[in-house]
Specification:
By secondary structure, this protein is of the alpha/beta class. It has one domain: Rossmann fold, CATH 3.40.50. The protein is 36% helix and 16% strand. It is built from eleven helices and seven strands. Strands 3-2-1-4-5-7-6 form a seven-stranded mixed beta sheet. Strand 4, helix 8 (175-187) and strand 5 form a beta-alpha-beta unit. The protein is globular and about 45 Å long. Its EC number is 2.1.1.-.
């Protein structure tokens, strides 16, 4: 039986991501280790990956997922070293950072996602007898509804600095859905909090070169719905100070990206970027 059947099309993108991380784990020059990824991907993940993947540079798989994962790993561990103890992984999917990263003993990680996906993940975790390296609170919620109440009821402390990880989510949201999400997590963010995310430029999202990709995503039931060429306009009015790194920049390369680095908003760019936002 295909254990991924209870998952809806959007939730199944988590299996796709896990499959790409499993492939990276198998590389001799891997940017990170993820021994749980292959099991998390199951049989469905590689099938989805093969349907969408293209060649970014000759002889090398699309490096974006590997670079994104390593970039965010580095940022999370830096925050841990700097004393942040409360982390919230928004739309966590099949992310295994609570198991594979070396966290400080008093770190607490909240994992938010759809109940069906988290139930599926928990069944796999139990089957693997996997041991988390940090205290972990899986919380099944609807991120388009009231998720802040359940989070607070689970012990989240809005008075202390929080790291929000919003990976692989924003472009699946309509602009108003994205804005509501950012407002809600901002309201729960004490001064000194940090938000880590990835996004895509609206210019590149609307470009003819993305038309086939977007059509396939729609056909599979998980379309990309929004982008932003000026991420500062989303975050600065909410009290966040942001840094933006394009894939291929010195801090978002790791020897994997051969294209010229470009800034968000420039016409004709790759248009994918990583951001770090600090709450003032």
């Amino acid at each position: 039986m295909d254990v991924s059947q209870p998952l809806d099309p959007l939730a199944k993108t988590a299996l796709w991501t896990a499959s790409m991380r499993a492939r990276e784990h198998r590389r001799a020059d891997r940017l990170f280790s993820d021994p749980l990824a292959e099991t998390f991907a199951g049989d469905e993940g590689p099938k989805i990956m093969s349907q969408f993947e293209g060649h970014v540079q000759s002889g090398v798989e699309d490096p974006a997922l590997a670079v994104r994962t390593r970039f965010l790993d580095d940022q999370l561990l830096k925050l841990d070293a700097d004393g942040v103890r409360q982390f919230v992984f928004v739309a966590v999917g099949m992310d295994s950072r609570a198991f594979r990263l070396e966290w400080s003993p008093d770190v607490l990680i909240y994992e938010l996602d759809r109940p069906a996906l988290l139930t599926f993940k928990e069944d796999l975790v139990r089957g693997l007898h996997a041991q988390a390296t940090a205290a972990r609170v899986p919380l099944g919620v609807d991120l388009l509804a009231d998720w802040t109440g359940p989070l607070l009821e689970s012990g989240f402390d809005s008075r202390q600095p929080t790291c929000w990880l919003v990976e692989g989510l924003l472009y699946f949201l309509e602009p108003h859905e994205r804005d509501v999400l950012l407002h809600r997590l901002t309201d729960l963010s004490a001064a000194g909090s940090r938000l880590l995310a990835d996004y895509v430029g609206q210019t590149i999202l609307n470009s003819p070169g993305m038309a086939a990709w977007r059509a396939r995503m729609v056909e599979q039931g998980h379309p990309w719905k929004s982008g932003s060429d000026r991420p500062e306009e989303l975050f600065v009015p909410l009290g966040w100070e942001i840094q933006v790194s394009a894939y291929g920049d010195p801090d978002a390369d790791y020897g994997r990206w051969s294209d010229t680095a470009v800034a968000p908003g420039m016409l004709g760019t790759r248009g994918r970027y990583l951001l770090i936002a600090d709450k003032q």
